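Reopening: structure tokens for the S-adenosyl-L-homocysteine complex, inputs below.
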Amino acid sequence: MINISKKTDILSLMPKELEVFVTEELGEPKYRAKQIFSFLCKGVAFSEMSSLSKGLRQKIEEKCEDRMPIIEKKLVSAIDGTVKYLFRLIDGNCIETVVMKYNHGNTVCISSQVGCRMGCRFCASTIGGKVRDLEPSELIGQVIMAQKDMGERISNIVMMGIGEPLDNFDNVVKFLALVGCESGLNIGYRHISLSTCGIVDKIYKLAELDLPITLSISLHAPDDETRSQIMPINNKWGVKELLCACRDYYAKTKRRLSFEYTLISGKNDSQKNAENLASVLNGELRSRGDTMPIHVNLIPVNEVKESGFVRSGDAQIKAFAAHLEKRGIRATIRRKLGPDINASCGQLRRESVENNTER
Ligand code: SAH
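Re-run output (same inputs, fresh job):
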């Protein structure tokens, strides 16, 4: 394990902060900050920042830590071109990042923490608990390194990888601003989705910031009894409290929310569950004459060996979607990308953690 120094995490600095660092700590003129920021956002190592003098490059190496993730493993789907990276971080921890190719551009799915402490029963990311939060540098670093390796622009980001983004609130909010900088990656808020298991106080806090990102809520069950069985967070904030926060979020931001619903055979996929889901969404989000658009993403559960959950059959999934549509709720069934490379997040890191402990 490498010791983490007290060096400056230069890639976590906003352009203005970088300017202060460059002038005050490095004793260099302001314009150098722009050059350095541009190099950093292209994934250029300190030692390879060619237009800087050797002396300055050395000074940066002495005073700064390089938190750029390193590719440990890369899998490419032969079926649809989805690319999955296992990235190694400065302290030896690993995270996963996935790039999906759509007609409208490349979308990267990034991790927000090393592990996760939310404990959702179907999810591979949470099995070993949370190890630590990712720094803004490690969040943007996933996008930078994926883009550099692909040699193609990444235009959209989804925060749906390992970890709970709202459990790493400040670093995530800083990252959202950093990645939007025009002189850097220039991926604006409107091209970013953030998915949460429902940390209600942080949803209110996010709404206050009024960022035009898309918020996705991992709902997975319409009633407290079922939801608490599969998502421990529900014991803290129940379905109604969560939907109340969603209503507030929409009222403040006017941004469409989407709901994720993982279909697990015999657990949450019956017609009765679909009826309850439609009733609770319409009742909590639209009953006051609101016209809030509601979109539910149905995801057949990815079978993780530890959970024992089984995916619902295709007919069951279609019937579930049809019922929601009948009640005025848009429902789409998520296409599985990268099925040959186990593209669902958490599984590759688990394999690497298990292999390391077995060694
Ligand atoms: N912590 C955040 C984001 C990470 S998970 C959240 O909970 O939203 C991204 C999405 O994948 C969530 O909707 C999550 O519930 C879902 N997910 C996790 N494991 C899954 C599995 N085995 N099968 C299907 N969906 C899963």
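The chain is about 35% helix and 20% strand. The domain at 8-65 is CATH 1.10.150.530 (DNA polymerase; domain 1). Marking as resolved unless the reporter disagrees.
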